[in-house]
């Protein structure tokens, strides 16, 4: 796995296998949330099982796998070109399941988003996810995130069209 990445604020004692599962999840997140490394599905394919699944219908409609999520995220990061995870607030595992809550920030400094020109507006947000790791690869990824909180900060909402 690559670099150290953002700090982990809270965790618990883990077995060696659970530490490896957390490392796989953090590596996926490091790549998927990197405006320079995430080139879409192929960037994270080596970290996912062939039958992996993703669930976050309100924030990533149409995404069914962690690969789809990375692809969608690459498009968002073209607008938030400085997006980065600032910390893993909570990270722990129980056997093959990993819980991760993280904080991120970025600004609309890249390409237009849905016809809205870059404003330089900054945003900070938090999200949580539960992953299942099988044989050293992501099998499932369930994400909870208030996308509208971020979008409001960036000026991407013209009203309550998404509420």
Structural commentary:
The chain has 163 residues and is an alpha/beta fold. The chain has four helices and six strands. A six-stranded mixed β-sheet has the order 1-3-4-5-6-2. Strand 3 (84-94) and strand 4 (97-107) form a beta hairpin. The radius of gyration is 16 Å and the shape is globular. The model has no long low-confidence stretch (mean pLDDT 91).
Task: Indicate the topology.
Elements: E1 8-10, H1 16-32, H2 41-44, E2 48-55, H3 66-79, E3 84-94, E4 97-107, E5 122-134, E6 137-145, H4 147-154
Parallel strand pairs: 1-3, 2-6
Antiparallel strand pairs: 3-4, 4-5, 5-6
Short description:
With 163 residues, the protein is of the alpha/beta class. It is built from four helices and six strands; from the N terminus they run E-H-H-E-H-E-E-E-E-H.
Instruction: Compute the average pLDDT.
Output: 91
Structural class: alpha/beta
The major β-sheet equals: 6 strands, mixed
Total strands: 6
Low-confidence stretches: none
N- to C-terminal distance: 39 Å
In DSSP terms (H or I, runs of 4 or more residues), the helix count works out at 4
Q: What is the overall shape?
A: globular
**Strand line-up across the major sheet:** 1-3-4-5-6-2
Helix and strand run? EHHEHEEEEH
Helicity level, as a percent range?
25-40%
Strand content: 25-35%
Overall radius of gyration: 16 Å
């Amino acid at each position: 796995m690559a670099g150290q990445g953002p700090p982990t604020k809270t965790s618990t004692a883990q077995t060696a296998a659970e530490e490896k599962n957390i490392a796989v999840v953090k590596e996926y997140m490091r790549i998927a949330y990197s405006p320079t490394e995430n080139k879409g599905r192929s960037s994270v394919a080596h970290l996912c099982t062939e039958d992996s699944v993703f669930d976050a219908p309100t924030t990533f409609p149409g995404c069914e796998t962690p690969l789809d999520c990375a692809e969608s995220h690459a498009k968002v990061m073209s607008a938030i070109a400085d997006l980065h995870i600032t910390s893993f607030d909570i990270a722990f595992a129980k056997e093959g399941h990993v819980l991760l809550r993280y904080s991120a920030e970025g600004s609309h400094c890249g390409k237009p988003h849905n016809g809205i020109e870059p404003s330089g507006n900054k945003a900070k947000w938090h999200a949580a996810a539960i992953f299942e790791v099988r044989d050293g690869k992501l099998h499932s990824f369930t994400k909870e995130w208030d996308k509208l909180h971020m979008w409001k900060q960036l000026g991407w909402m013209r009203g309550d069209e998404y509420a």
